[in-house]
Amino acid sequence: MRGFFRMAGWLEGLSYLLLLGVAMPLKYIYGEPLMVRIVGMAHGLLFLTYLGAAFAMYDRENWSPKKLAGAFLASLLPFGPFVFDWKFLDRKI
């Protein structure tokens, strides 16, 4: 489960960065909204997967409510899942 959570976090974080750094500029600077639809949908699914995996980790690995809240907050911030992985899951980026 830990490996699945890490992979979900990395994919969610990457999709968020692609959405903010590539898709949004394409939409608002160049008038091309298609990438926002594609990356936005992928990011939404990965976001839900990450939150579901965080709740599973809370249940299976006896995370504190504070750690669960940290995972949720990390999902809302750019680079957040990467920092959460490094700080709380004993893995260097």
What descriptors fit this protein?
93 residues, mainly alpha, 4 helices, 81% helix, elongated
In words, what does this structure look like?
The chain has about 90 residues and is an all-alpha fold. The protein has one domain. The protein contains 4 helices and no strands. The chain is elongated and about 45 Å long.
Sum this structure up briefly.
The chain has 93 residues and is mainly α. The protein is built from four helices and no strands.
Oligomer: single chain
The percent range for strand residues is under 5%
Largest sheet descriptor = none
Number of helices: 4
Order of helices and strands: HHHH
Q: Helicity level, as a percent range?
A: over 70%
Mean pLDDT: 92
Unreliable stretches: none
Tally of domains: 1
Which structural category do the helix and sheet elements fall into? Answer: mainly alpha
Task: Give the beta-strand count.
Answer: 0
Rg of Cα set: 14 Å
Distance between the termini: 19 Å
The shape is elongated
What's the topology here?
Layout: H1 2-28, H2 34-60, H3 65-76, H4 80-88
Helix pairs in contact: 1-2, 1-4, 2-3, 3-4
